[in-house]
Amino acid sequence: MRFTVNVFALAILVFLGTLAANASAQERAHGVLKDSDGKAVGTVGLRETKQGVLVSLQISALPAGLHAVHIHGTGKCEAPAFTSAGGHFNPLNMKHGLKSSDGPHAGDLPDLYVNKDGTGPL
Which residues make Cβ contacts (< 8 Å) with residue 61, sequence separation at least 6? Predict the structure, then answer.
């Protein structure tokens, strides 16, 4: 479901920009997730930890069901098609999907389940 994939790339861009601008012990970034019409559909929080980057999503206006979430390799995310985000972050040239026996892309994250009311945390 390209919508959540591409919206998420924008949040990563915000986080990387924050990391570049700041040099504290624990970095944090927050962003508003928007659809191709510019409507806010949720928020994302990213926090640097010793184990990696912790990603938190709060969704408020998406269609019910499973949505894919990925980190993309390009620091751009332009509406309406969001193709400027490029492919998934995959520096080790692995296969797509967390359940791949050959190992997943580094940018593959668990699917996001959105409730019937359009909300969902990750």
Answer: 35, 39, 40, 41, 42, 118
